[in-house]
Amino acid sequence: MSVEARAEVILLTGECRLEDAEPLAAALAERMRPVDVSQCREAHAAVVQALLSLGAEVVGTPADPFLRDLVAPNWTSKPLGEETLL
Amino acid sequence: MDLQDELLQQFLIEGRELVERATADVSALKAAPQDRGRLDALFRSLHTLKGSAALFDLPALVRLLHAAEERLAAARQAAGPPPLGPVTETLDLTERWLDALAGGGPSGDLIESTSRLAARLDAAGGAAADEGSAEAPQGLVRVVYQPPRDAYFRGEDPLAIARGLPGLVRLSVAAEPEATPAAYDPFACVLKLTAWCAAPLSAVGAAVRLLGDEAQVVAEAAAPSPEPAEAPGLDLRTLRIESARLDALAGLVDELVVAKNALLHLTGARADETRAMANARAALDRLVGDLHAGVTDLRLVDLGRLFSRFPRQVREMAEALGKAVDLTTAGDGLKLDKAVIEGLYEPVLHLVRNALDHGVETPAAREAAGKPARATLRLAARAQGDTVLVEVTDDGRGLDLARIRQKAVERGLIAAEAAAALEDAAAAELVFLPGFSTAATVSDVSGRGVGMDAVRAAVGRLGGRVTLRSQPGAGLTVSLALPARVMLTKLLTVVAGGERFAAPLESVVELHQVSQAELTEIRAERAYVRRETVIPLLKLAELLGLPAAPEPARFPALSVEVEGAPVGLQVDAVGERWEAPMRPLAGLLADYPGVLGTVTEGDGRVLLVLDLAELAG
Lengths: 86, 617
Hints:
Chain A is an alpha/beta fold. Chain A is 36% helix and 24% strand. The model of chain A is unreliable at 77-86 (pLDDT under 50). By secondary structure, chain B is α+β, with helices and mostly antiparallel strands.
């Protein structure tokens, strides 16, 4: 199970694939909560897109160098409300 | 019209605009090759052209535009001189495609030329890319990758593709924001990825080759910089309006001016006009004037629209004639009324043909005369008060006045003694006589049976004049002085042969009251004297073919200038001065001699506006 919607946080764990984008979006649509990516090893573009498009607050640092160094700056360095809302 | 047709029509319009714009950018880059903004603009135009052409089944054209774009991109990243020659050829061919698409479709010849040029560009591009990667291995390569909306459905993971790029050092991931999470479609790809790679251009290019148009690869000299400004996708500051609708609006405003004149005439004539009525009358007068000016402004078009039609023509003509000619343009930004721009094409084209055919010498002859082998043809426009001067200048041999005199005599246009007695300036004017042509043989380029008289007539219909300035051995300048905008024409009503006419006030130099007693007969013609000048007198009614009226003891005469000398025109009476928008004659009457157009009087009557100088000439 890659997307785990808890009361205060949504956990992304392991390899998050295309099919995980839907439950992630549904969970965020139900109620906006921070998304914890510290356990995420890999993420499909659709999952990253859901985080960015819906402006989710992302917490935690993934271990994977690609996610940590190249993908993560896109959500931490660009807080919601600025570039994404233009 | 089905959708595809509609799209094609749109492409034909936009395509021409893009070619025009790109041609202007190429001209600017010739003068300033380092102008980054122009280079970017040129790149965008080519890119948009390619994108639009791809909507239709035009593989040859798309391939050519793609190749040209690649070459330009390579020059842009290497900061080298842009390949303007091949780009110009590409634009020429694109224009021919647009012509072909508007007509019967592309010919086999056109398709072949297109493929040949594309192949040449590709070959040159390969060589340039190799050099580039050898010289600048340190620069970063930027990849802009916009996957299609259905990428996820196709089983693609754009992020994994980005991850696989060689030497990836930075990645920007942007997604379209979704304001209502409930409406979010998790399976529609709305990502735009920008990646920077520390790897050779060729390696990065190979990695994204399969992505085709979805990814664009550009090498950057420096470290990742903020993304360059994108071309504005939808520019709402400007609006495309069918010119017919604008013309209809202009026609309505013209009629409003007439209606206003009628109303003003009525109220102004009333003895019991109150101050309030007078104020309202003045306000209406001013508002209608402003409205007319505003609508007239809408019809103004850049002269660049006219000039941009010539680079290709000049190249083709020069090639056909075996001459080397550079075309320069100036004053593209000046604006003229749409009708004037349209009406100018034919006469300017004729002048350009004349210049290339008769004015410009062959490269050998030019060198023999101590001139550069390549001739320069200049199309320039500048504003001068209310007029715009459009000049066609060549640095060829100038007018051969001896030859012009001889021709005019041979054609029986003038007697030999008269020709010899003419001053040079007057001899040059002989080329404007109907039936005059200096070319010994009719050539493909200018021998179309149109002479300078047609140019003068065409420009005259636009309310302009043509003058010549020749420097023997050094070139010829033909100046067209045109009204900057179609304005309310100041008119004078005259009565001749019992009929009412209008004449442009500016064409009347003076108004004379002449009595029979002061008339003198000179060789069966009548004349009178004003300020020690003998003024020949003609009857306007006679010139118009109207029945002669009994001669009054005193009558008014309009003094007009014909070839620098005054001529008096006898009329029955002179009426009021007023102003109105003049409509040029259309259809069968368009070339009717001696008539400039029509105006509608306040009471709805239509008057002919006479060209007094032409009638008296």
